[in-house]
Amino acid sequence: MSKRRKSVRPKVASRGLNDSRTHALYRAGLHFLAESDCDAVSIARIAKAAECSVGAFYERFPDKNAYLIFLIRNALRTRISNLENNLPEIARKKSSRKLIIDEITEFLVEELSGEKTAGVIRLALKLAPTHPEALTPITEYRAAANEIIYEILKPYIKDRDARNRIEEALQIVFAVIFDAIQQNYGPLQFNNARMNAVLSRQVEARISDKSKLPKGTVFNSTKSAHNKTQDKELAIDPERIAHSPRDKRRESAPEAKSSKRRNVKLI
Length: 267
Hints:
This protein is an all-alpha fold. The protein contains 13 helices and two strands, in the order ααααααααααββααα. A hairpin with a 2-residue loop joins β1 (226-229) and β2. α8 (136-153) crosses α9. It is elongated. The protein starts with 11 loop residues before the first helix and ends with a helix.
């Protein structure tokens, strides 16, 4: 019997970007993602762009998906470092809450709309249904942004709900940015000053909003739909819709008339 060959475990975990060939593969991947979909780029093409062999690729990554997730993780770690280095500096330079919000919003849009970063985010969102771990770096980036921006804006918000308000505002910002990354459809597009202005106003409005939900409010999509009219809550019951007055008239109609129609003979 032939002995099974032991599989060689890729050394990507120990080498990382400190290894010159791994770093070259990383740069090549970001370049391709900025220009095209990951499915359109083969491992052979990536290796060639990195000036290494396909064998060198497989020494570091077990397959293409592991390589792609490696790209996502390291690219967004770089973006987190940029958050940590640049956002506190913005807070030191600007004197008012509005100016700080304007600068933070502009920074997030510019950081995430860059071709390479946008390509990485598109890739993560595409892989997520089959590889949920691809979303982890995005979640970590958002959590870092939430924490840093909360610490910056906290002194300007005299409200116990400050953290929730900031996180809600940033959720809106990220939703618009990610939509633009995926489709770039509609009036709020990259390279358009209107996007920054609208997002800044949304953040300011959400932070300034004094409204609060009543205690115990629960949003449950499994309950019957409700429609409020003149301060009265009317439940829309599917059973009542199914047995409308028109249906009741049909049920109560004499069967004689319908039977006579069915028995008419055509001569």
